[in-house]
Amino acid sequence: MRILLTGFEPFGGQSLNPSWEVARALHGLQWPGLLGAQVVAVQLPCVFAQALPALQQALTQHTPDIVLALGQAEGRCDLSVERVAINVMDARIPDNAGALPIDVPVIAGGPAAYFSTLPIKSLVAGLKAAGFPASVSQTAGTFV
User: Counting C-beta atoms within 10 Å of the first and last residue's C-beta, which end of the chain has fewer, N or C?
Assistant: First the structure.
């Protein structure tokens, strides 16, 4: 079994992105409790036009059984499990290539949003039971 773990490169003038630091730290981990799963970490560019193609390439290259996409949310102090991915790019700051899309669909003609199929409340409860600060987040936001 293979787990693809993605994180983003730094953006907004920052020197690091915690999502990538976590993914990078777990790269190569063998997880015996989960059918011997191996973690493969991939860094995604913080560029609207490049992030989705980079993710699609990683999916093709690694053919994962599970994908866990990490992101950075300024001001959050816990692990947030997302309920909804909004199908819109709406940047408050330029991405790393200078793009500043406003109200542009991620997938033209797609639904307005994509709901998680995971048991997000159970995941949050499990994280808390294991001693991690965690909460449900209603949306992943609209930046890359």
Answer: N
Question: pLDDT class for 32, splitting at 50, 70, 90?
Answer: confident
From the centroid of its chain, how far is CA 63? 17
- Residue 144 forms part of a structural domain: no
Q: Please, how many CA atoms are within 13 Å of residue 70, restricted to the half-sphere of its CB?
A: 23
Is the backbone of residue 103 left (phi > 0), alpha (psi -120 to 50) or beta? left
Q: How big is the chain by its Cα radius of gyration, in Å?
A: 15
| Residue 56 belongs to domain with CATH number | 3.40.630.20
Q: What is the extent of the structural domain holding 28?
A: 2-139
How much is the average pLDDT of 112-134?
96
Q: Model's pTM, two decimal places?
A: 0.91
Give the sign of the dihedral formed by CA 15, CA 91, CA 4, CA 125: positive
Q: Which two tokens stand for residue 9?
A: 């490169």
Q: How many domains are contained in the chain?
A: 1
**H-helix or E-strand containing 114?**
strand 113-115
The tokens of 61 are what?
Answer: 């290259």
C-alpha dist (Å) from residue 61 to 26, 56, 57, 80: 19, 9, 6, 28
